[in-house]
Amino acid sequence: MKVLLTQDVEKLGKAGEVKEVSGGYGRNFLLPKGFAVLATRGQVKQAEERIAANQKRVQAARKDAEALAARISGQTLRFVARVGELDRLYGSVTSSDIAEKLQQQTGVEVDRRRIDLDEPIKRIGIYPIKVQLMAGLEPVLNVVVEGEAGSLELPADPEAAE
């Protein structure tokens, strides 16, 4: 029995694929649960059109993400905070703070969950931070945390900060 998958099915295939399955598996599991429909010419053609439209949307989203990555990459965000002993901050700089500052400085709105920060920044220094926009697109921006009393000098080479 040939079926067109409407959803991803583990160990069988992804949505939009035409698969040959046993009659019982198709009749008793895939069709009633809505995971698949019978593979007629019309259904297959509609699935191909949906896949083509989805690929166009993904390409457009990737193009937008690349433009956004070009604007973000290399940006330097400065945070001034109160500092205690051993250059430790009173409080911390979080991914929410970074997203807010990035939006203020560049006008680019980035979700805080896309900022790759394992734990909040609690010391003064220069930190290279990745922003995960899309698979394969991770621009790096520099976060400079300095105390109220003095300022940190940026190195000439951003890789030297790592």
Structure notes:
This protein is of the alpha+beta class. It has two domains: 2-62, Ribosomal protein L9, N-terminal domain (Ribosomal Protein L9, domain 1, 3-Layer(aba) Sandwich), CATH 3.40.5; 68-161, Ribosomal Protein L9, domain 2 (Roll). It is 34% helix and 26% strand. The chain contains three helices and nine strands, in the order ββαβαββαββββ. The chain has helices at residues 23-33, 41-72, 95-106; strands at residues 2-5, 18-20, 36-38, 76-81, 88-93, 115-116, 121-123, 125-131, 140-147. The strands form three sheets. It has a four-stranded mixed β-sheet, covered by helices on one side. A three-stranded antiparallel β-sheet has the order 2-1-3, sandwiched between helices. A two-stranded antiparallel ribbon has the order 5-7. A hairpin with an 8-residue loop joins strand 8 (125-131) and strand 9 (140-147). The longest helix has 32 residues, at 41-72. 14% of the residues are buried. Residues 153-162 have low confidence and may be disordered.
Give a quick summary of the entry.
This protein has 162 residues and is of the alpha+beta class. The protein has three helices and nine strands; from the N terminus they run ββαβαββαββββ.
Oligomer: single chain
Q: What's the shape? A: elongated
The number of domains is 2
Q: Are there runs of 5+ residues with pLDDT below 50, and where? A: 153-162
Helix/strand/pairing category: alpha+beta
State the end-to-end distance: 57 Å
- Name the CATH class of the largest domain: Alpha Beta
CATH architecture of the largest domain: Roll
Q: What is the succession of H and E elements?
A: EEHEHEEHEEEE
The number of helices is 3
In percent, how much strand structure appears in the residues? 25-35%
The average pLDDT value, as a whole number, equals: 87
Total beta strand runs: 9
Major sheet: 4 strands, mixed
CATH topology of the largest domain: the name is Ribosomal Protein L9, domain 2
